[in-house]
Amino acid sequence: MKISRIIKRRSVAKEVADKGRIQINGKLAKSSTSIKVGDQMQIQFGNRIVLYEIKELHESTKKEDAAQMYVILSETKQEDFA
């Protein structure tokens, strides 16, 4: 996630995964979970849920090329119900 710049720091990515806010192909992911091209990754950022499809994997990339590594399939906002 750091290389693709979806989440910019490893420590933050680990924290998000440890809190159960990342799913890979519909299954809860740990910070050590591997991903591959074609996987769908869902991340909850606060009240926003974003579904990505992984298009490319690289060991490193330039900032300008990072967005080509994935496509956003959907983005939804959870409403707080009182």
UniProtKB/TrEMBL annotation:
Domain RNA-binding S4 residue range list: 5-40
Lineage: superkingdom: Bacteria
Matching InterPro entries: RqcP, S4_RNA-bd, S4_RNA-bd_sf
PROSITE patterns: S4
Keywords: Protein biosynthesis, RNA-binding, rRNA-binding, tRNA-binding
Gene source species: Enterococcus aquimarinus
GO function term, MF aspect, one: rRNA binding
An example Gene Ontology biological process: translation
Protein's name according to its UniProt entry: S4 RNA-binding protein
